Amino acid sequence: MMYRLFIQRTIFLLVIPGLLLCSVACGNHARGLDAAVPIPSQKVSASGEQNIYNNSFGLTDGEVQQLLTEHNRVRSAVGVGPVIWSPDLAAYSQEWADYLADNQCHIKHRPAEGRWQGLYGENLFTGTAGFYDVGDGVRAWESEKQFFKGGAVTLANVQQVGHYTQLVWRGTTQIGCGKAECGGRIILVCNYAPAGNVVDEAPY
Asked: Averaged over 67-82, what is the pLDDT?
């Protein structure tokens, strides 16, 4: 039993991030988005405190905070400013996570056009429910850092480092994520605005 569980965990850790997590640039952002799509800023309560959890849908309050903490930890490591949570981006991400869960758990990015057209930067993660959490998704994207040698994002390197460079893209200021479960797996979708991975530009 322990052997079977170890194998299952290893498969998702080593294979899923490498095979199913298509880079944002090979999907709807190959054309490069260098301008922010207007998103309402975070709602502020009467006491002046930010309500980062509004409209988080598939995520718990703790998961939202974990996603923000992990994103900003990775960004801080390279001297990039923090991102804030966007309830609107979270709703947008949740919509796609639910769509993927309802369609045989087939992991793919939003298309370049049509009803489900992608408008923002996007990272995807899937892993065995109970073994992996949302923080593991961010850390899987961060693991591409070892392949990033600095400089501009290009069509040649974005396949290998595109998740990481989106995490640390200096121009990105807002994130929102959604989570769904399907076939014993979690599906994590995070969207970023303004989108990163603009070809021939450096992330920081």
From this structure: 98
Round to whole Å and give the CA distance between 111 and 177: 18
3-state class (DSSP) for residue 110: coil
- The pTM is what? 0.75
- Looking at residue 100, the DSSP 8-state letter turns out to be H
Residue 2's SS3 state is: helix
CA angle 27, 62, 55 (to 5 degrees): 60
How far is the C-alpha of 73 from the C-alpha of 71, rounded, in Å?
5
**CA 133: distance to chain centroid?**
13
DSSP string computed for 143-195: GGGGG--SS---TTTHHHHHHHHHHT-TT--EEEEEEEEETTEEEEEEEEES-
Q: Supply φ then ψ for residue 194, to 5 degrees.
A: -60, 155
> In which residue are the tokens 């490069």 written?
32
